[in-house]
Protein: Nucleoside hydrolase
Amino acid sequence: ATEIIFDCDTGVDDAMAIMYGAGNGARFVACTVTHGNVPVHVGARNTLTILDAVGLTDVPVHQGAARPMAQPLLTAEFVHGHDGLGDAGHAPSQRSLAGTLAAAEIVRLARSRPGELTLVAVGPLTNIGLALLLEPELPRLIRRVVVMGGAAGVPGNASETGEANIWHDPEAAQLVLDAPWDLVLVGLEITMSTAMPAEVVARLEAVETPHGRMLWQSMQHYIDVYEPLVGMRTCVLHDPLAMALALDPDLATYRLARAGVELRGERTRGQVVADLRGFEPDPTDPLEPGVVRLVDTLDVEAFHEKFLRAL
Ligand code: BDR
Ligand code: CA
Structure:
């Protein structure tokens, strides 16, 4: 099983990613939570609620950064609902948060299991950036990183060019992209292709497991938001795709590219700028700092099947 530290801002699609992982063989070592879709304490509570719903009542949840490194906090309740889970009225988990703060726990786990853990990050990258500041050797201690973030060569969703997770903390994102680890950047250029066709939405609606019902109810507000964008009642599966590629890298093909975050642009702050002109890796160091894997092609049908199976 792939052993995962899941860094999230739960959030409707973060909830989908937890359910996807639970049903597809992920072993959650810990969840760490950041500000993002909702304030961090709300996201932390939501993470516990979703873990409990899939029976993962022993996975510890560590609260993390309450705001970005160098700009004010901004949240996205207009996308995820006031409670972050579509205001569907789910009873929040009564479980306690773990004592250690997120960044410290990421460092502690990585040191205790060098080279074994996969980091899946589907919120703003503040916790991971902080962990890199605490432990500069972190990239060597982590097996692989899969980040949902960026909009390489396509329009943003938080600004003209900015994707929400990067745009919510550009400085942290730059620290993460620039670290020398094996990093897959799963951006809007590929996640927007995961909008579920009507037939998949119908199968989702018919799911009868309690957690599947719960997700369907939470998704309705999110589907409302996507309807004008996609032209039908469906939604895209941003965060589940990052989880899917952490568990089954072969669902996609990849290409290497240099990428960084625009930190000073007057209209483009928070944009991921990837050099899409092609890239000749250094054979001695294909993953030199600043080089990431972008997703080239994706088996969307296989991904949707695995998503449905998990529910
Ligand atoms: C990302 O931003 C958040 O709203 C979602 O949870 C996802 O992680 C999509 O841009
Ligand atoms: Ca998210």
Q: What stands out?
A: The chain has a mean pLDDT of 96. Residues 8-9, 11, 13-14, 36-37, 122-123, 239 surround calcium ion (ligand 2) (CB under 6 Å).
